[in-house]
Amino acid sequence: MATTERLKNFTILHSNDMHGDFLAEAKGADGNLIGGLSLLSGYLNKVRQEEKNTLFVISGDMVQGSMIDTEYKGISTIEIMNYLAPDVVTLGNHELDYGFPHLLFLEKMANFPIVNANLYIKKYNKRLMNPYLILNVDGFDIMFIGIVTEEVLNALKLDTSISTFVGLEDAAAEVGKICDTYKSEDIDLTILLTHIGFEEDKKLAALLDPEWGVDIIIGGHSHTLLEQPAQVNNILIAQAGVGTDQIGRFDITVDDNTNSIVEWKWQLIPVDKNLAEPDAELEKFIDTFKEEVDRKYNRLICRLARKLTHPKREVETDLGNLITDILASSAMSDVVLIGSGSIRGTELGPLVTLSDLKKVYPYDGALYKFKITGEQFTKIFSYIMSAENRIPGEGNCFQVNQGVKAVYSDAEGKLESLSINGNPVQADNQYTICLQEYHYKNSVLTLNIATEELTKLGSAKVVTTSAQNVLEEYCSSNQNLNSYIEGRLTYK
Which stretches within 348-466 are classed as H helix? Predict the structure, then answer.
């Protein structure tokens, strides 16, 4: 890419949904080390030395997903991110997992700017974060704006002090407000950092007025792996999967006269030992956290009969079956629905340490039990098993306990049958159901049924304040546990 005075080259490296993926893992037949922040940092150092105008940005969900992060409630993650020194980041939904006050504490710890334009403190109608950031890089001004939407932030129903604009239209209007107010003719490049999912990014791009001058959307949340960016409304839209096994890279040429991208190249780059030398200093720093966590959590709690797996969230899995069966036995409920996405690991066992269990099921939340009718049951399963809800990375899919059998016909777009312990679900009968707190309080989004409708037959009862504690106690007391895929959820 040639450079003149009015044309300038920039390299933008981007990550999203890193989820505390700090450590490299040996993968494949030859055991190559893949991912981890030591290798990622080594690559950042290399590119920063090679390319004059390099920026590193993160589109949300730095936290949650590792024992190190959970033990230190995100503090370790922010310290490690300070070492990586991103130029700007935006919030994801999981940045709020440890509560609103703790998020403000984490923000004060960060040595890097966090932008978000549409997250508000309700009472005072005040933005929670700085809505935008303008960086002057080699004489060119680059504006970053951060966006989340209500769909991503439904977890905030657990904390009622903050809210966000309701949908994409309002989020788009907020982008317009900032661009109209702050995007002078001197702004050479405008980038949205979003955490709303790839499909939503495309919808948002379509709603943006070209006069606002948005050039690129760098997103997260849906864990989408791309071959090349999408282009909607002349806006480039990219995302870099999940974790630290890969990083996105834009090499772009910007025209100062027209404030536009005149040339671009994008790559999704595998992070492995062939990419760069590991950052040994960062590795040592991460090890200080790891050693502390290992001492506390690397004790054996049980042995499973065999390794259980959870390869996809959209289908029944043997690991999902084990978890729901354990929770159903504790809750004594006809049906337990556990969000597939809350099972964060892809495998467990045969040896299980406390650390392994907490990695696989990191959400230490309550379970709610209540009665509903068979008609409501049928409505819930018709929705959660529908093809529209099973879009990879986008839908709210569930694992269910033993005794439940549901058959859904994709060809006909309907639920063919639903039974509990061999008995067809009857519309007028009453059944007990157990849900995680998030799904109970966001039932319209996750189950397509209002919370008020769910509790018509009586208020919900908290059967445990910690599902994680139930799993730990059960596994510690029961050896050689096993589970198989047995057709609890069948798609035709």
Answer: 354-360, 374-384, 437-441, 443-447, 451-454
Compute the distance between CA of residue 78 and CA of residue 26 in angstroms, rounded to an integer. 25
How far, in Å, CA of 449 to CA of 380, rounded? Answer: 7
Amino acid 386 reads S
- 62: tokens are 């730095």
Residue bearing tokens 């004594």: 332
Hey, what amino acid is at 154? N
Distance (Å, whole) CA 121 – CA 127: 6
Q: How many CB atoms lie within 10 A of CB 413?
A: 11
User: Exposed/middle/buried for 475, CB within 10 Å: 0-12, 13-18, 19+?
Assistant: buried
Long-range contacts of 172-177 (CB under 8 A, 24+ apart): 172/204, 172/207, 172/208, 174/117, 174/118, 174/131, 174/147, 175/117, 175/145, 175/147, 175/208, 175/212, 175/214, 176/208, 176/209, 176/212
Q: How confident is the model over 396-452, as pLDDT tens digits?
A: 899 999 999 999 999 999 999 999 999 999 999 999 999 999 899 889 889 999 988
**Quick one: which of 301, 303, 348, 297 has its CA closest to 321?**
348
Which spans in 332-486 are helix H? 354-360, 374-384, 437-441, 443-447, 451-454, 467-477
Q: What is the pLDDT of residues 230-261, one digit of tens each?
A: 999 999 999 999 999 999 999 999 998 888 99
Q: Which two tokens stand for residue 26?
A: 């040996």
Other CB atoms within 10 Å distance of the CB of residue 142 = 23
